[in-house]
Amino acid sequence: MSVRPALAAYLDRIGLAAAPAPDAAGLLAVQAAHRQHIPFENIDVRLGAPIPTDPGAIADKLVGRRRGGFCFEHNRLLSDRLAAMGFANRLLLARVTFGDPPDLPPLTHCLLLVTLADGARMIADAGFGGTYCPPLPLVDGAEATSGDLARHRLRRIGAPGTLPGEWLLERLGPPETTDGRGRSHADWEQQYAFDLAEVAPADLMMGSHFASTHPSARHVNCHVASRVLPDGFVSLLDRQFTRYRAGQPMERRAVDDVDDYRDLLAREIGIDLPRDALARLPLWSAGT
Length: 288
Prior knowledge:
Elements: H1 3-13, H2 24-37, E1 40-41, H3 43-47, H4 55-64, H5 71-84, E2 88-96, E3 107-115, E4 121-124, E5 136-137, E6 143-145, E7 151-156, E8 167-172, E9 189-194, H6 201-213, H7 218-221, E10 224-229, E11 232-237, E12 240-245, E13 251-254, H8 258-269, H9 275-279
Antiparallel strand pairs: 1-10, 2-3, 2-9, 3-4, 4-5, 6-7, 7-8, 8-9, 10-11, 11-12, 12-13
């Protein structure tokens, strides 16, 4: 597929009639549309299916087959399509610190560093399934507020090459608009740390492989699917469904069975899969 049809298919998938200008407002529009239309999900991980790392295979899954994916899929697709729109960008790797892990985590998340035409640098991320953060200028203390009214802050915490990273993304907002790892309405919580080191394709493949196969990895130990709403967040975390919209009562309930799960997945998240595939998820194993 050539660049032009690929870009047209992507814009249709995320509900935009045309590519926006390659500026800060355009980046905000593309990332928000991406996350509101392409779900985050790890169903293939839990089914033991291979996770694509080739850009064409990722586009076929997320655009052609209208599936979702996790960060290495989402942000590879976002990077390629932003480049086609005129946004200079490259991928970075990050350590997820959301939920206060006990040890220094590995580099199992990716995000984008975008350089605008005026030279300004911003971070963008359509692949963090636990929350939603709008694009932020790469400036110490930069803040943005998402549609669920959560605040997000970027802080410079170290020199290049130091651990856990040079930059830290933080969040302050309702825990209900997270995938269950958010804990406080009142305190800034760490989301992930990163630096600006160049990333090779092999580094991305290694991060994706660890995140989808290692026994300690989150995606190997839970079932998650989520979608950003213009003013909130909807998620399926194992057998719990949550929907939150700013200014409205939160809805939370248990998922009854595989049929209920399939209905919620299709109606609320936007993923339509056969019942027999979903019935094979470890979610329905005894003791899960």
